[in-house]
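Q: Sequence in, structure out?
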Amino acid sequence: MASGKLFIYLLISFFIGIQSIISPIEFRWIEQKLDHFNDSIPQTFQMRYMVKEDYFKPNKTIFFFMGGEGTILSPATNVSKIILTDSYMHDLAKEFNGYLIHSEHRYYGESKPKIRDLTVENLKYLSVAQALADVATLIRFQKANTTHFGDSKIFLVGGSYTGFLVPWFAKLYPELMDLGWGSSAPFEFKGNFKSFFETVFKIIVKIGGSKCHEKIIKGFKAIDLQHSEYCVHLEGEHCKDSLEKQTIFQRFTVLFAYLVQTGNKTTIRKACKDILETPFISFLRNHLIHDFKCTYQQNRNLEYKNLSFFEKLGINYTCLDLTRTLKNESYTTDPARLWFYQQCYELGNFQTTEYVPLQFYLDYCKDIFPALPQAYMFERIQNSDIVFEDLDENTKVSEIFLTQAEYDPWSGTKVRNHKRTYYLKDAFHCEDLRAKAVNNNPSIKKLKRDIYREVQKLQLV
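A: Exactly. Output:
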C-alpha cells in the first residue's frame, strides 16, 4: 500500500511538473518612453509585465489586467497566482482560448525609470496620462504581431485604483479596447473625501453591530478628551500643536479602513468581539503593533513625566509618523512616497474625519512636496473628476462594466450617468474579480453572467 501511494504521489508530481513547464507565467519587458507627450525627451525605461499564454489560440481575445500602485509581485497579485491563474478574468481566458497579460505600473515594482531619486522634478512623469500611454503602447506592441493578435479583441480590466483607469483609458484610446471592467474604484475626485469613513463605520454597524460602533466612537472621544485635559495642565513641548494628535488619529482610523476594505464578515465580527471584550486603547495598541509593526518599549532613560500623552498610553508617535518615509527621496521598494505623490498631484480623495481635517493632508502635501503649489493640486484633482462627469457620453465607455460593492468604503463615491454600473449587494472591495468557483453571491453571479455574454460576443465579431 505504501509503495502504491508513493507511485501515485510521484505520478501526480510529474504531471504537475509538466504542467508548470508547458503553462508558465512569464515575465517580459517592453521599452517605454519616459514622456510619451514630448518627443524632445529621449529617455526610456523598461516596463515589466506578466503573460500566461497556454490557453491562447491565434486572434482570440487578449485579457489585459492593469497593475496599480505596487509591484506585480505583491501578496495580492503575485505569480502565486491571483490575477493570471485564480480570477474570473482567468476563467474567461481559459474558456475562450484567450491571452492573459498583467502589466506593471510605471515607477512601481521593477518598472523603474532611469532616475537617481524621487524628487518632485523626477516624479513629474508619474501620472495617469503617462501610465495609460504605457498601456496603449503595450497593446499596440501586441497587436503589431498580426499573425497571432491581428484580429484579437481587447478586454481591459482593473481593480480599485486601476478600476477607474479602465473608463479613463476608453476615453483616451477607444480604438485600443473592445470591452472593459472596472471593479471597486472611486469615480469621484475631490480634496475632502469625508464620505469614506462615514461608509466605513456604516459597514461596521451593519456587520459588527451598533454596540461595536458605539464603543469605537466613545473610545475616540475619550482619548480626545483625555488628550485635551492633559494638554491644559502640561507645561512643555508635547502639546504645542495638534500634528501629533492628528497623525495618531489618522493611523487609528486607517486601522478600521483596513479592517473593512481587506476583510470580510468573519474578520469584522471578530474585530468587533475584541473591541467589546477589551479596553479600546488595548485594541488599538495591539493592532498598531500587528499592522504597523510598531514596538512599544518605553525609553527607560526618560522620566515618565517627560513622556508625551500618547507615549504614556503605550503608543509610539515616531513609529506612526509617516514623514520620514514620505520624505525619503531614494528609490526604494516602499511605494508610500509614490502613491502619496499621486494623491497630492492629481487624485486627491483625502480620507478626512472629525479628528483628521483636510488641512492635515494639505500640510502634509506641502511638507513632503514643497514644489507642488496647492492651487495647482486642486486644479489637477478637479480635472481628474471631470473625466467621470458623464461616462455614457462616450459610446465605448458606456459599454464598460463598473462595479461598486455594498461593503466597500469606496462606494461612497457615486458613479454618475452610467447605465452599466452594478451595485453588488453583500459584497466587499474587488470581490467580484475573484474566480467564479469561489463565489456564490447572487449579485456577483449576475454580473459575471452578463460579462460572460459580452465576452462571448467578442468571439463572434
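The first strand starts at residue 26 and ends at 33.
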